[in-house]
TrEMBL record:
Pfam families: HATPase_c, HisKA, PAS_8. The gene is atoS. This is histidine kinase. Residues 156-368 form the Histidine kinase domain. It comes from the Bacteria.
Amino acid sequence: MISQYQESLLLPGRTYQSGPVDTTYEDVLENIDSGIMLFDEEGVISFVNKQMYGMLELTRHSLVGCTISHLLFNVRLSRFKKKQVLQSYKEMVYKGKSNYEFLDEYGRYWKVTLCCGEQMKGCYLFTVKEISDYKLIEQTAYQNDSLAMLGKLSASIAHEIRNPLTAIRGFIQLLHPHLQQLGKQEYGKIILAEIDRANDIIHEFLTSSKPSVPQVGMIPVSALLKEVVLLTESEALMKGCQINLHPFQEGDMMISGDVKQMKQVVLNMIRNAMEAVADRVDGLMGKIEVGAHKEGSEVRMFISDNGKGMDIRTLDRLFNPFFTTKENGTGLGLSVSDRIIKNHGGCISVSSRVNEGTHFVISLPLIH
């Protein structure tokens, strides 16, 4: 039985059969976990199993008897799926690749495999299978290899970076009496404090494969965010953007953790936001919103920007060690930040749209 829509797509003068798939095997093909689509020697779909037409969100009758051109003109096939069908066809039929992987609109990974040649007698057999679990295992293995490499490099890097910082610290201490005479001793204190913080950051970066135990203390969220915003305001103005600290409605919210590590996380995210808004091409003023609110038993600190945003592929790898979109980036900032927050019993979530901006949320347990 052929549907009216399918009938309009059939080629004149041809007799269509159910296809070369033996009925004894149809039940097996219907129940495997891969989608199957078979094109005959004339490029017409002769068999499709329920997994495949379920993936395409079409019916079997609207597919059997169609060519690839008819499939791409099917009004019921979504634009994204048309794009992936066409790309798979180009990569495998025209370029001769045996398989092709892609990411769908829901963030799932799929693998398309093509079987053709003499053994198929001119037919083309496409199979589609979800490989999200395999990708997760692959990414975990890559992350473990990256962390192992980081451990080997850490000793030499620490020596090269810390020596200049130690020299700078020593000279600033020697200049302290002169700064005191000029009434500028506060500058010396700020420089020493920032050098110490830089040393702490280097330590965290280089030991990210062996996360340190947080030095737990009570941290007022409002004081933490105010201090970080104060530290970054002048840098933001130089980069042509503005930082807005939202007023705190719930009073003084407290979290438990290492104040240096918490400061490092928020600073890293604000500086990432500054770079994102600096890359805008429309000339509009860059804005960064910082604040916190209570959500049940958690404190949720947020850092938002109206920068260039990120696509789904970038978001998917954002917290992987060594992954970076910056020309001179190390790819360690967000991976270290994610590890710090997890060590404190919290999590980091992120949402972003290209050319619209990015929104980070740091969720941590609230201390009463």
